[in-house]
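Hi support team,

I submitted a single chain yesterday and got back a structure, but I'm not sure I'm reading the token output correctly. Could someone confirm the output below corresponds to the sequence I sent? I've pasted both exactly as they appear in my results page.

Thanks,
R.
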Amino acid sequence: MVGVASAPWRAGPAAAGAVFQWDSASTYLREPPFFEGFEMTPGARPGIAGARILGIFGDSVTTDHISPGAAIKPSSPSGAYLQSLGIAVDDFNTYMARRANHEVMVRGTLGNVRIRNLMLPDTEGGITKHYPDAVRMPIYEAAMAYARERVPLVVFAGEEYGTGSSRDWAAKGVQLLGVRALIARSFERIHRSNLVGMGVLPCQFMNDDSARSLELDGSETVDLVGIENGVEPQQTVRLVIHRAGKPNREALLRARIDTPVEASYYRHGGILPCVLRQLLGGETP
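Hi R., thanks for writing in. Yes, this is the structure output for that exact sequence:
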């Protein structure tokens, strides 16, 4: 075994400089986008109005359903991406091997072959409908279409959303898909915290409301009223549901920002820009 202090290791090429030199041609290690548009002072976080629904999920959706894992299928958005770069199928490797490439990971988020999006109740896999045209497509492709249209996104879920192992990409991938809020009956503790850390707003239904009781089918647009000027810990948020040709429906949600520190993370757009501002001597929580 060649040790890290061996002559061949020391003789290997290495870039010099104060910052890491990212290789834009790498398909394994890419510069992450989490600091794009970074400024020393956090801007006001916009409210959520006219949002489309990217997915409606049932109970006990695990982080293994959300986060990409196992082999990369050639027919998946991640597989298509790698093939577009000239990567042979035999060289795909796994999502875990390529987890430092956000382009691969975001394409696999919510793409598990066993996940069920209740917008298409008879279908398994990471498929959704893009509205207003109701065209079926992979969740990643729909999310990118909504991004081009500048439409915010929300996801609905049932009880115990995010159970299982604490997989960081279950929150990272959802954020990169453009999801602004995750509305569920309940959350697994660590995953809820991870969502806040990525600047995604977890909201919990109050009373006995749920996506099922509100008869959501994914064609609706929704507003979250009460967060236009920021979010306070455990504040009440009003969910307003708009359906074409029908009266609006409303429900009350609890913002699962549980502490003042989490409120600060959310205001900064997530824990990463918050910590960077602290390190650079900028605004503190």
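A quick pointer for reading it: The domain at 43-66+111-279 is CATH 3.20.19.10 (Aconitase; domain 4). Let us know if anything else looks off.

Best,
Support desk
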